[in-house]
Amino acid sequence: MIVCVAVVGHQNNPLYIQSFTESDDVLKLHHIVHCSLDVVDERVNNPKKSGPTLNETFLGLLYPTENYKVYGYLTNTKVKFILVTTDLDVRDADVRNFFRSFHAAYVDAVSNPFHVPGKKITSKVFAKRVSGIVQTFGLSSAG
Amino acid sequence: MIGVGKIKQYTNVLDRPLSKGKQEVSLSAFAFLFSELVQYNQTQVDNIAELERRLEDAGYAVGARVLELLCHREKGNRRETRLLGILSFIHSTVWKVLFGKVADSLEKGTEHEDEYMISEKELLLNRFISIPKDMGAFNCGAFVAGIVKGVLDNAGFPAVVTAHFVPVDGQQRPRTTILIKFAEEVLQREARLG
C-alpha cells in the first residue's frame, strides 16, 4: 500500500507531496521524506561501485523504518522522486514500473509552458494521473 | 461463432482512430511563429543586447523541458555526468529531435580550456531571416543558444552560451557557431572525475 509520493527539486525544495492514507500523520510522512533526501545525497556522492551504477536513475530501497519502506529515483536534472510504502514484500520490478509511469507523468507536467521550474506542481491532471498510478500499483502487488 | 475475429470495419470515416501522426511540425508554421516572437520582443526593448537576452530566456525554458523529455524518452534513463557525454548528447540527440538532423560539427576551443563550439552551416531558425545592416552582429540563433543553455544548466553544467556568425570563404551566408563557455566548477569537477 503506497502511503506517500513526493517530488523534490534539485535544491531539495519540495515540488509535490501527496499522501494516500488518512490514518497516518501527514507531518510524519513529510519528515520521513525529508530524512530520505540525506540518503539520496549520500548515494549520489559516494557510489558503492563506480561505473554504470554511477548513472543509474533508480536508487532502490533507501532505508526501512519501523513499518515503512522508502524507495528513491533520481532523474537527469537531479529531481528526486520518493516513494513511501507499507508493503512488506514489494517486487523490485513493480517499483521500477511505478517510477517509470511516474516519470512520464512528471515530464508531461513540466512540459507545460505555464509551469515555472522550481515552483510547486499545481496541475490537477498530474494529481489525477498520480492517483491512478498509485492505485494500479496496489492492485498489481496484491495479485 | 461466425464473425468473431473479423476486423472491425468503420462505416463512418469519423469513427476511425486517429493515426499517431508524424512527430513533425511544418517549417513554415514555425517560421511564422518565430518571426512573431522576434517582432513582439523588438517592440518591447530598445537595444540589441536586451533582445538577444529575451530570445535566450525563451530558449532556456524550451531547453529545460527538452532535457526532461528526451532523457525519459530516448536515453534509457542514464544521467550524464561527463562533459563530453553531455556535449555529444546535445550535438546529436537534441539537434536530431529539434531540427531533424545532427549538428554539423562539435569542436573544442583552442585558446581556452573551457570553450566548446557547435557549428552549423545554416541554422534552420535563420533560414527565413535576414538581418538589416543597422542591427550589426545580432543573431536570432540566440534562441538556440538559450535552448543549449537550458539543457546544460538543468543537467548540472552551468555555462554561458552565445551564438555568433563566422564568415566562411566560398559561401555567401556566414556559418553560425554556438559558443559554450563552461563555469569554473564544471571544469574542476571534470578534473576530479579524471
TrEMBL record, chain A:
Membrane-spanning segments: none
Lineage start: Eukaryota, Viridiplantae, Streptophyta, Embryophyta, Tracheophyta
Gene3D superfamilies tied to this protein: 3.30.450.70
InterPro entries: Longin-like_dom_sf, Sedlin, TRAPPC2L
Pfam families membership: Sedlin_N (PF04628)
Family designation: Belongs to the TRAPP small subunits family. Sedlin subfamily.
GO cellular component: cytoplasm
GO biological process assignments: endoplasmic reticulum to Golgi vesicle-mediated transport
PANTHER family: TRAFFICKING PROTEIN PARTICLE COMPLEX SUBUNIT 2 (PTHR12403)
Domain of life: Eukaryota
Protein name (Swiss-Prot/TrEMBL): Trafficking protein particle complex subunit 2-like protein
TrEMBL record, chain B:
Signal peptide (UniProt feature, chain positions): none
Keywords associated with the record: Endoplasmic reticulum, ER-Golgi transport, Golgi apparatus, Transport
Keyword Ribosomal protein on entry: no
Matches recorded under PANTHER family: 41-2 PROTEIN ANTIGEN-RELATED, TRAFFICKING PROTEIN PARTICLE COMPLEX SUBUNIT 5
Subunit description: Part of the multisubunit TRAPP (transport protein particle) complex.
Location of this chain's protein in the cell: Endoplasmic reticulum; Golgi apparatus, cis-Golgi network
Any one GO CC term of the record: TRAPPIII protein complex
Biological-process GO terms, alphabetical: endoplasmic reticulum to Golgi vesicle-mediated transport
Pfam entry (one): TRAPP
SUPFAM superfamilies the UniProt entry points to: Ligand-binding domain in the NO signalling and Golgi transport
Protein name (Swiss-Prot/TrEMBL): Trafficking protein particle complex subunit
Chief place where the protein resides: endoplasmic reticulum
Family: Belongs to the TRAPP small subunits family. BET3 subfamily.
